[in-house]
UniProtKB/TrEMBL annotation:
It comes from the Bacteria. It comes from Amycolatopsis minnesotensis. PANTHER family: CYCLASE-LIKE PROTEIN 2. Pfam families: Cyclase. InterPro entries: KFase/CYL (IPR007325), KFase_sf (IPR037175). This is Cyclase family protein.
Length: 221
């Protein structure tokens, strides 16, 4: 790494039994081979552990691929990495209110080819029941503004980029339909400058998955 480069981890840690969504299965992280078991067939002083992990794709901080809402769209394994790696970040800060309209998006300026990360501050409630209540979301007007602006990625630090009561799911349906990848449940956006950082996301290439946990980072050179 070059001297002076800073890397900010934008993800939340996933742990056994955590609540990632109240209505989804909690992740299960089990030992498949324990250290005591491995000691029986390893050299003296050598042990290891193997795990079996079961969890929904929408666990922790996760990537939504177009396939999640559009059967002909690329799944997590097929999203082009060029659309996720070294993408200039534009942070849109919306500290007040729940429904995020087009105004803050429009005020952010040129967003073409960018990763638009919406900072609401809601990530401070991670691990609490409050994270799932009054979660900020993008309105249909904000979504229309983003589709016109042509970013490569849109992310948010709240529980869902859509209003959970809106059956049309405008953000997920329209943004993914425009081949704009989504990042949900982001973290530490308060540490990322409005402009000048670069997003890097390398998803685990899981075929047939519409969403899957990722570890996005912001790189400040």
């Amino acid at each position: 790494m070059l001297t002076g480069t800073r890397v900010i981890d934008l993800s939340h840690v996933i742990s056994n039994g955590m609540i990632t969504h109240p209505w989804l299965q909690r992740p299960v992280v089990n030992e498949f081979v324990t250290r005591d078991q491995s000691a029986a067939f390893s050299a003296a002083g050598v042990t290891f552990q193997l795990e079996v992990i079961s969890m929904p794709g929408s666990t922790g901080t996760y990537l939504d691929a177009p396939f999640q809402f559009h059967v002909d769209g690329p799944d997590v394994s097929a999203v082009p990495l060029a659309r996720l790696f070294d993408i200039p970040i534009v942070v849109v800060r919306v500290p007040d209110g729940r429904a995020i309209g087009a105004g803050p998006i429009r005020a952010a300026g040129d967003l073409r080819g960018a990763a638009v990360l919406v900072h609401t501050g809601h990530s401070r409630f991670w691990g609490e029941g409050a994270f799932f209540r009054d979660s900020p979301y993008l309105t249909a007007d904000a979504v229309a503004e983003l589709v016109s602006a042509e970013p490569l990625v849109v992310g948010i630090d709240s529980q869902n980029i859509d209003d959970g009561t809106d059956k049309a799911k405008p953000a997920q349906h329209r943004l993914l339909g425009a081949d704009i990848a989504l990042l949900e449940c982001l973290n530490r956006l308060h540490e990322v400058p409005d402009r000048g950082a670069w997003l890097r996301v390398l998803p685990t290439p899981v075929r047939g998955a519409g969403s899957f946990p990722v570890r996005p980072v912001a790189v400040i050179r």
